[in-house]
Amino acid sequence: RTTMKSLRFISAEALVSNAEFARKSLGAVAHDLFPLLFKASYLLEQGEVIHDLVENWPLFDFNMGKLLGATLDYQEDLSHRTCSVCLESCLTGLRDYVLNQSSPYMKKLRVVDLTGIKDVEVQFCKCKKTMGRWARTQLLSELCSELLVYLQGAQCNPGTFEISINVLIDLFVTERNYELVVQALLKKCSCPLKICCVAFRSDNLTLQKFFYIIKLTDPSLLRKLEIVHNVHLEMEHLEILFNSIHFPLLMSLTLPARTFNVRRFTATDEQMLTKIGEKMGEMMQLTELSMSFSILTGRIQKLLSPLKTPLKMLDVSNCSLNHADMAFLANSFHANYLEALDLSGHDIPELYPSTFFQLLSHCSSVLRSLTLEDCNIQDTHVNMLILGLSPCQKLQEFKFIGNPLSSQALKHLFTFLCELPILKNVEFPVPKDCYPIGITYPIDDASLCRFDHQKYERVAEELNLILLQANREDVKASTPLFGSYDAAVQETNNELGAYLIKSFKETLEKFTTSFNKMS
């Protein structure tokens, strides 16, 4: 599929394709053409031209999402291209904007917004090398440190010290880049490039380091907070976090696995849970909440009823919800606003079929993403599922891997899915009849890949043929056996793996020590 380009854009491409000539000509280019040349340079991966455009940026703001998004001159959105060449050129150009004293343009730049960059699985850039969120955090922090060293040591133009540019970014901090980011945040006042953290994700951090850095980020600006892998945050720590820090703009909150475990609750814990719910109720902007792999049986109402703003995204996968929890969700005011819902890991047909369909009915007019992985949905439930999904005409994504469905049932379901007008992504399970007879669900990791791969390929082809015959080539259907793509995990998987091995080793050593003492 080719996207139409205007004559202006074609001319811009022609200019920037000759990097040497384009760089020499920038002084004669009208200010309002810089955005056009930037997008053309990004498309052609002309790193040197990108660097010089940013170094001489003549406008008040530089917004990556808008610059790379659909424009009248070129409709294609390039914001999902996290091309390493382009992004590094962009950020080093920003550093040199501060240092360049001979630029013919007055230094007007006040805001740089890097938050519109989207990390996706498939990259279309020629270099095939990406710069993910962690690497962008790392590079920007390095450049801020470089600038400070330069400003302290060199004979700078006095005007350089007056430059103040807010750089809006989604930070991603792990143990490996922690010290560098802390230094950049601590010296923010002295640096012309001022890191403004809009979204913050932390993995592989001790609680002490997490609490320290989250205060440095200026939580009053934070819109998204993700505390994900290997940050051992439990309910008492969450209460301390909410009591000590105010998040007035927070819209999205992701908590790590096992933050809550109601099975070992005391009366004090119940009071703590109530207070946490009340604190979340004070976050007037909060519309996205992810609490997967916590044990929340019977406590959903206590946590969510204080919220004054309806949730648009809720992830309560593997949270051991009971009928009372599902009844609260189905009848709460959130139900009419839910655009993304994840109820994976619950035996929906057995525990609360009618309540679930009531919830689905209430959110059907707005629901965009539904995830029902490992929910024990069987062939006998498919007709009911189709009935429940029929009103969901805005559904774009449906994930249901890990359910014991036969090839025949999947074909029946796919025939229906073709009718959902804006569906884009389907993640379906390996058919039950591809596994050995007697396989039990949920399937353990050891047995997950032990299926008839040739038979699966044949079924997958048949399912894709159903889409093709219905003119739905726009729908991507796949079976990610080990879960959906996670850009953050992909980028830091080496560090994550090393951390897990270290934790396992420490646990083993503790066990051995205890065993020896007993002996």
Automatic annotation (TrEMBL):
<comment type="similarity">
    <text>Belongs to the PRAME family. LRRC14 subfamily.</text>
</comment>
<keyword id="KW-0433">Leucine-rich repeat</keyword>
<dbReference type="GO" id="GO:0005737">
    <property type="term" value="C:cytoplasm"/>
</dbReference>
<keyword id="KW-0677">Repeat</keyword>
<dbReference type="InterPro" id="IPR050694">
    <property type="entry name" value="LRRC14/PRAME"/>
</dbReference>
<protein>
    <recommendedName>
        <fullName>Leucine-rich repeat-containing protein 14B</fullName>
    </recommendedName>
</protein>
<dbReference type="InterPro" id="IPR032675">
    <property type="entry name" value="LRR_dom_sf"/>
</dbReference>
